[in-house]
Design a protein that fits this description.
Elements lengths: L6 E5 L7 E7 L2 E7 L5 E5 L1 E2 L4 E2 L5 E5 L2 E5 L6 E3 L15 E7 L2 E7 L35
Antiparallel strand pairs: 1-11, 2-3, 3-4, 4-10, 5-6, 7-8, 8-9, 10-11
Length: 145
């Protein structure tokens, strides 16, 4: 398949928001997703952990700036833009180019795999709650004069 080959899949209006649809594109099972922000994503439909073609039935969500789909089998999440697993960045699903031309969704060539890079999570500094000093416990009582 050349990089210029695009296959028409469906009308844009046929895709429900935050739902997946499976389609056969260039002989491969592909899952199409339309998010609430009207972004379109196309990823491979096969869950790499279970080898089952079920990602189109997954739960679409958002963590921060990342749109993801959670596999319906064991809820492992995959970034819709890169295909990387959010729980295990060493695992990735295939991603495809997607575009809309005159209201028709078209899926193009398979994208090159992103390098397997561990994401650095920024942790919030947790401030412990204020407690009275235990060295002054019980508190000294003042005598009334």
């Amino acid at each position: 398949m050349t990089g210029e080959t695009w296959q028409a899949v469906c009308d844009l209006d046929d895709l429900e928001v935050d739902r997946g649809v499976a389609a056969l594109v260039h002989g491969q099972a592909v899952a199409l997703f339309r998010t609430a922000r009207d972004d379109l994503f196309a990823i491979g439909n096969q869950d790499p952990f279970h080898r089952a073609s079920m990602l189109a039935r997954g739960i679409v969500g958002r963590k921060g700036r990342i749109d993801f789909v959670a596999s319906p089998l064991h809820r492992r999440s995959f970034d819709l833009a890169t295909g990387l697993c959010l729980e295990d960045p060493g695992v990735q699903v295939t991603t495809y180019d997607v575009r809309v031309t005159e209201g028709v969704v078209q899926v193009g060539a398979r994208r090159e795999r992103a390098p397997s890079v561990r994401r650095l999570r920024r942790t919030r500094k947790v401030v412990p709650p204020r407690r009275p000093e235990l060295s002054r416990w019980p508190p000294l009582l003042r005598r009334a004069r």
